[in-house]
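#onboarding

Welcome to the new folks! Below is a worked example of what a typical request in this channel looks like: someone posts a single protein sequence, and someone else replies with the predicted structure as tokens. Don't worry about understanding the tokens yet, we'll cover that in week two.

Example request:
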Amino acid sequence: MKSNKFLKVTGILMIIGGTINTLAGSYAVSQLAELYSTVFKIAAVFSLLGGIVGLFAGIIGVKFAARPEKAMMCIICGCIVVLLTVISNIIGVVGGDSFNFLNLALGLLLPGFYLKGAFQNKKMA
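Example response:
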């Protein structure tokens, strides 16, 4: 069966990004959260959670790139990553940060491409 290269490549990039976010989130939870407010602690937990989900989504994308019948799992994971990105930005604004459209757009870019690949995979089914 033919593999969806777009989903595979974005999956690999999600693995890389998820690993970096997981490491950064775990550092924030373990070290920095003691020094800052409750909002920062919540943001650190969401960062860690987002990294873990992104890593999982990337692995699923690479694994299921050649299995169109599993596309819905990739779509669900991609949507969760998008949701966590939006929630993380909302928490930042509630916590006192100014809204940064560029930050939000860049945070949604890779999950958006991942979702595009997942929907392509669904069409192949």
